[in-house]
Amino acid sequence: MRILKTQTLRGPNYWSIRRHKLVVMRLDLEELIEKTSDQIPGFYDGLIKVLPSLIEHHCSRGHRGGFLERVQEGTLMGHIIEHIALELQELAGMPVGFGRTRETSTPGVFNVVYEYVEEQAGRYAGRAAVRLCNSIVETGTYAIAELEQDLADLRDLYANAALGPSTETVIKEVEARKIPWMWLSARAMLQLGYGAKQKRIQATLTQNSSILGVELACDKEGTKTILADAGIPVPKGTVIQYLDELENAIADVGGYPIVIKPLDGNHGRGITININSWAEAEEAYDLASAASKTKSVIIERYYQGSDHRVLVINGKVVAVAERIPAHVIGDGKSTVEQLIELTNLDPNRGEGHDNILTKITVDRTSLAVLEKQGHTMSTVLPAGEIAYLRATANLSTGGIAVDRTEAIHPENIWLSQRVAKIIGLDIAGIDIVAADISKPLREIDGVIVEVNAAPGFRMHAAPSQGLPRNIAAPVLDMLFPPGTSSRIPIIAITGTNGKTTTTRLTAHLYRQTGQVVGYTTTDGIYIDEYLVEKGDNTGPYSAGVILKDPTVEVAILESARGGILRSGLAFDSCDIGVVLNVAADHLGIGDIDTIEQMAKVKSVVAETVKAEGYAVLNADDPLVAAMAQKVKCKVAYFSMNPDNPIIIDHIRRNGLAAVYENGYLSILEGQWTLRIEKAVNIPMTMGGMAPFMIANALAGCLAAFAQGVDLELIRRGIRTFKPSADQTPGRMNLFNLGDYHVLIDYAHNPHGYQAVGGFVRNWEGEKIGVVGGPGDRRDEDLILLGQISAQTFDQIIIKEDEDTRGRERGEVADLIAKGIVRENPHICYEKILNETEAIETGLSMANQGSLVVILPESVTKAIALIKPRISN
Ligand code: ATP
Ligand code: ATP
Ligand code: MG
Ligand code: MG
Questions:
Q1: What per-residue confidence (pLDDT) applies to 593?
Q2: Residue 24 within a domain
Q3: Are residues 680 and 601 in the same domain?
Q4: Rounded to an integer, what distance in angstroms lies between the CA atom of residue 783 and that of residue 750?
Q5: Quick one: 763 and 737 in the same domain?
Q6: Domain housing 264
Q7: Using alpha carbons only, how large is the chain's radius of gyration in Å?
Q8: Do 589 and 684 belong together in one domain?
Q9: Ligand 1: which of 219, 234, 275, 433 to mutate, judged by most atoms within 8 Å of the beta carbon?
Q10: Relative to the alpha carbon of 395, which ligand is closest?
C-alpha cells in the first residue's frame, strides 16, 4: 500500500460543504486490492490489539462496534486507513469524525478522505495509519513503542500549532459569531472579517489601540504622573539612577516598608516588595538596576493588600481578578519541595504562557521569599499553612487568579473606567493593590500600581477559582458593533466556459455603483481597473488576496475547478454563487471522470451560498438547473428561452430570473418583466450574433440585480462593457482587416467550440478556422473538436499548442483531423503544427468577406500578429 498524493482542503469542497478541514489521500492499495480484511490472516486480531478504541466507531452500521464488524466481515484497506487516521487524531486529543473513502477510475487506487483539526497533524495521521496497517498486514502487529511515538508526535504537532491563550479566547468567540478570520503573513496579526470590513488584532491589542496609549502604559512613571494629576490614587514614589540617591529617595516616600522596581520592567522581573531594611534595599536596588535598560529604578511606598487586575474594554469594566502569588498549602507531612511537585502535577499548569496556569519554578527569588517566612525547601508545613514562593502575583511565575468581578465596588469601577480613558487604551489591564476590592480605594488606602496595554485574558477566561468571564464578547462588540457586518459581498462564479467573461462583466456592472471591486480571473487579480498580479488566479490564494485587501468593498471571484479540488473554496460562504454551465472538459483530471462528478464540483459554489443569498443557475443546462435541489439559499435562473418550463414554473412562484425575450435581455421578477437592454445595443453580444455571450450577460446582470445593484446602473454597465482585445483579450475579439475579418477566441473545449460556432454560423461570407486543442484532454474530446470544426468552417487549418501537455507532437492534430473526416470527409483541411505559421497561412487564404477564426494557444501572440494588419 502506498500514498500517491496528499491534499489538504481548507474550505467548502467536493466531499463536504460543511466540513472544511479535510485531508484527501490518494492511496494505491497495490497487492492489497485483491484482499479484504477478512482474507488477511490475523489482521482483525492484530488491529483490535493495537487500537482497541476503534470499538467506538459506528461506521455505516450506526451502532458501537459497527466498524469492527465490517473489518471482521471483510472491508478494503482504504476504508480501514480512513478510520485509523481518524482514531489516531482522536487518541492524540483532536476530536474528529468525518471520513469517506471512494474508488477512483484507476484500478486499486482510492481517495481516502478524513477530517483534521490541525493540518500537519492531519497529514501525519494519514502516513501513520498506512504505516500501522502495513505493519499489521505483514507482521500481525504494530509495536506499542511505535504507536506511542506516533501519538506523541501528533500531540506535539497539535501543541505547536496552538494559539496563545488570549488569542484562543478571542477566536472561540469569533467562530461562534461566524466571523471569518485568517492569519496575516507577519507579526502574528489576525484579520477578522473580509476586505474593507476587516479588523485586525494581535493578542489583545486591536487596531483601535492607540500607539500613544500603549506607550504611555509602558512608561510606568509617566502613567503614575498623569494619573496622579487626575487625582487617582497611585503609589507615592520617585525614580533614581544612582545608588547614592537611594537614601534620600526612601525618606521621600516616607520610609520603610518600600518597593523597588525597574522603571521599564514587566512580568515582575527585578521587583522586590515589602523591603524593611537598608541591606535589603541595597540588594533590591542592584536587582532592579540590572533589570532596567536605562538603569532607572523606582522607589515606592509599599502598600498592604492583594493584587487585583481590573480589565476595562471599550470603556467598561468587564472582569476583575484577584491574583495570588505562587504558593503551596501544608498538609502536615510533606516538605515544601514535595508540595511544589504535587502542585505542579495539576494538568492546568504548563510552561510559560501556554496553559491556564504556569508551573511553579524554584529559583533564588523563591528561596529568598521562603526564607523571609522562616522556611526552606525542606520545611514540613503544618496542615493548612500557606507558604509563598513569590512576592508578586504574576500568573507566569506560578500565581493563581480568583474571579472578583461581582465583588468590585462601584466607585472602583468608575475609577478604573476613567483610568483606561485617561491613559487612552481600548483594552486596559489595571493593576490595583488593595486589601479589599469591594471597598472604595480611597477608604482603604488602595492604589493603582500600573496600567497594562495588551493585558492577558487567561486569568479572566479561565480563573483558578470563580466564574469564567466571556471577555472576548466585549472586544468583538467594540470591533464590530451590533448591526455592522464583518463581511463584504462575495460573488463566486463557476462553470466550464464563460467564467472570466462573466466575472469581468459583473465587476464592471458593480463598478457603476462607485464601490471598490476586487476580482480574480484566469488573467489576473484586479482591484478597480488596476492589475494586482498577472496569471491564472482562480484558486484560494488569489481569492485570499482580494478578501484580505482592506480597500475592497465587493469581491467577485472566478472559482475554477482546479482550486476547488486542490484546496476547497477560500471562503466559508458567499452571497451569490453563479454556475454558468457544465460541459465535458477537464474530464479524467483529478479523479473527476464523468460530467456528473464535474457538476458536483461546480455545485460546491452554489451550495456555499448563504441562506439569504442567491444561487444564479443556468436553466438551460439540466445539470446546473438540478443544483437548485441541493442549495440552502434562494435560486435565480437565467435562460435564453423565456418559455423554458423551469423559468415558467419559477416565475409562477414569484421567483427571480433573467431571460432573452423578443431581442431583449430582461429581468423577470414574478409577473413583472424589467427590460435591461436590447441585445443589439450590448457590445459583448456582437450585435446579438453571439448567443453564448447573451447567456453570459444574463448571468452577470442577474447576479448584480440579485445582490441589489440598481437596474439603471446595470443598464449603463452592460452598454459600456466591451469585449475588445484590450479589455478582454481572447474573448470574441473581432478585428476588421478591410477586406475580411478575423475573430480571435480562447475556446478550447467542445462546448466552447460550439459557442463560437453559434456566432460563426451567423456569418454570411466564407469561414476559415485555425483550430487546435490542449493535449491533456481525452481523445474523444479532441475528436469532437474536429467534428464541431467541420460543422462550423468551410476550410480548416489544424495547428498544435507549443505545450503538448504530455502527448507526442502531432497526436492532437491527428485526433482533430480524425474528427473532421468523420464529420465531413470532403472538407478541405491542412495540418500546420506551428501556430504562427498556421495563422499566417489562414490569413493568406482569406478572400473578400471572409471570416478567419483563430483559436490560439497564445492569445497575446495571435493578437500581435493581427494588429499590424489592421488598415485603418
Ligand atoms: P507585570 O508585568 O505582571 O504587570 P511588572 O513587572 O509590570 O509586572 P508591577 O506591575 O509594577 O510590575 O508590579 C508587580 C506587582 O508587584 C504588582 O502587581 C503588585 O502586586 C506588586 N507591587 C508593585 N508595586 C507595589 C507597591 N508599591 N506596593 C505594593 N505592591 C506592589
Ligand atoms: P477558463 O476555464 O479558461 O478560465 P472561462 O470559463 O473563464 O475559461 P472565458 O475566458 O470567459 O471562460 O471564455 C473562454 C471561451 O469560452 C470564450 O472565448 C468562448 O469561446 C467560450 N465561452 C464563453 N462563454 C461561454 C458560454 N456561456 N458557453 C459556451 N462557451 C463559452
Ligand atoms: Mg503589573
Ligand atoms: Mg477563466
A1: 86
A2: yes
A3: yes
A4: 9
A5: yes
A6: 236-301
A7: 36
A8: yes
A9: 433
A10: 1
The bridge status of strand 357-358 relative to strand 306-313 is unpaired
Q: How far is the CA of 701 from the centre of ligand 4 (A)?
A: 18
| pLDDT for 385 beyond 60 | yes
Residues having CB within 6 Å of any atom of ligand 2? 495, 497-501, 522, 560, 580-581, 692, 695-696, 731-732, 745-747, 751-752, 755-756
Question: Is residue 696 a contact partner of residue 616, using CB atoms and an 8 Å limit?
Answer: no
Q: Indicate whether 144 pLDDT > 80.
A: yes
Domain end position, chosen among 692, 720, 748: 720
Q: Which residue has the higher pLDDT, 354 or 834?
A: 834
Domain of residue 748, CATH code: 3.90.190.20
351 CB burial (10 A radius; 0-12, 13-18, 19+): exposed
Sign of the alpha-carbon dihedral angle for 287, 291, 292, 298? negative
**∠ at Cα 569 (192, 705), nearest 5°?**
85
Amino acid at 643: D
Sheet holding 258-262, edge to edge: 237-240, 297-301, 258-262, 272-275
Average pLDDT of the chain?
93
Flag whether pLDDT at 872 surpasses 60.
Answer: no
pLDDT at 412: 98
Q: Mind listing the pLDDT tens digit for each residue in 551-599?
A: 999 999 999 999 999 999 999 999 999 999 998 777 878 888 899 999 9
Residue nearest to atom 25 of ligand 2 (CA): 498
Domain with residue 689: its CATH number is 3.40.1190.10
pLDDT in tens, 443-489: 999 999 999 999 999 899 999 899 999 999 999 999 999 999 999 99
Taking residues 146-159, what's their average pLDDT?
Answer: 95
> Which pLDDT belongs to residue 353?
65
Q: Given the C-alpha cell 492569445, which residue does it identify? A: 859
User: Which ligand is the nearest neighbour of the Cα of 263?
Assistant: 1
**Please, are residues 148 and 156 in contact by the beta-carbon 8 Å criterion?**
no
> From CA 244, how far away is CA 202, in angstroms rounded?
42
Q: Do residue 675 and residue 741 come from a single domain?
A: no
- What is the count of structural domains for the chain? 4
Do 283 and 370 contact (CB within 8 A), yes or no?
Answer: no
Q: What's the gap in Å between 346 CA and the centre of ligand 1?
A: 26
Q: Apex CA 273: angle with CA 271 and CA 276, to 5°? A: 130
Q: Ligand 2 pocket test: pick from 494, 745, 746, 781 the residue with the most ligand atoms within 8 Å of its Cβ.
A: 746
Provide the ipTM. Answer: 0.89
98: Cβ contacts below 8 Å, ≥ 6 apart: 16, 19, 22, 114, 115
- Whether residue 439 has pLDDT greater than 60: yes
